[in-house]
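Changelog-adjacent note: as of this version, every example in the card shows the full chain rather than a window. The one below runs 492 residues end to end.
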Amino acid sequence: MTTNSIKNLQFQIGEWVFSPAERTLFHLEQETNVDLDQRTAQLLHLFIQRANEVLSREEIIEAIWDRSVVTDHAVTQSIFELRRVLRGSRSDAPNYIRTLPKLGYQLVIPVNEIVSGDGTTASPPAKTTAPVPLAAPSPLANRPRFGRHWLLISLISLFVSLAILGFAVSRMAAQPDGEAKPGVLPNPRQLTVTYPMLQDDGRDSMLVGLADFIVYKLNALTSYDVLQLPHNSPSMLSASGRVLSFEWVNVGGKPFVQAKLLHRISNQKLLEKRYPAMNLYESMNVLLEDLLQILENKSIDSQQAAAIAENYPADPEVVKLFFRGHFYLFSKGDKDSLKKGIRFFREMSNTWKEWPILYAELAMSELMLSELTGDESWRNAAAQTFEHLDRLADKPFLPPVVYEAWAMRALYGGDRKKAMSWINRALNFRDTWHGEIIRGKLYEIDGKTGKAGDSYTRAYMLKPDKVTLLWATHMAFQTDISKVAPSLAKSQ
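Full-length structure tokens:
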């Protein structure tokens, strides 16, 4: 291959054409150029050269940073930036780069090599799927580039189109589970789980437990951004393309949870079914299977699937007892509620000594209570709970909430590096509002106020309620939300 051919070498990745020599991405449909910084371009080129291979963090560091001493965060941030660029402005953009927990990252979009210098197309790199046909036969390298002015014109056109489409959507008929807010376009990749609060701790705790279970699982197992809203609010639901709602019903004197999945863009009911509440854990798994049949699933390996499983005891009464403690921790969160939750957790710990989730949530409750009361005895109690949790660390697959608990302990103990390592591991499995708050606190310690604000805002988007704000304000140390995330503070 000649020097000129190398200079003109390009690669088609999905809807993009990448020019390594010029460090640019060209969007085939929008006909716009994006300039990449050197590191992002190098990272993309590395993924292309190793298409369909799993790249470890160590391999990425060696290739991009030339074995320099860098943190895991630097790699995570670079991957995030590359994903952001490839996603562009589309909410329904494909997932270009897959994360494989404990293994690394993988480019999962087919790659087609283009040598535009002589107009020929070479064979795709090894291990790729069939090449994707080009939109036009003319060499893309010869297409005129109009720089920022062209990009500005394209963006204006895009905004006008979205405004028209938003207006059309706003004229749709009212939706059963929240009307579309005028001018708001439902996001096809956003799914919101919602349920009423019945002012009955027993039934509320079961609905919250069910919702948390489904939210955590769908965030880990599907390609959707799954949020949680503990009440039916049209203004909050208006941005969701899909809404999964729960309600408590009695049929023939027996309790059921009725689940309904609505596709709000087409106003189509994708699921409407009742699940027995007497054995809620069994019903939770049946509901999850039903949802996974309907929704688009991620491709995960067996190790990841086992860690996400978070198996609960088969005894339905034990599950109900656990959900009471879980409810007081994550849905109430005040001092009195935490004390109630701790009593439920400790009652269970007398018989369920091999269940890591129980001890993880008990330890988190005790740490939060120590912060809210200023009573060091709760910190000592948490230390004893962690001793038992640590003895379970040799289990083959630990649920992500255990890593969150360990991250919280390291945060309270001042070990920022260990805390960040644990919380990144947890969030690689599935995103949670309390995990985002822990990471936000760590960003604050590092002086990264912008990233901290991002994490707190993300936490509130996942679960927009006062408990989320309580944790963000009080966990480990006092945070002034009005300074760290002013837009979040103003939205209250």
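Structural remarks: The chain has three domains: 3-156, 187-299, 316-490.
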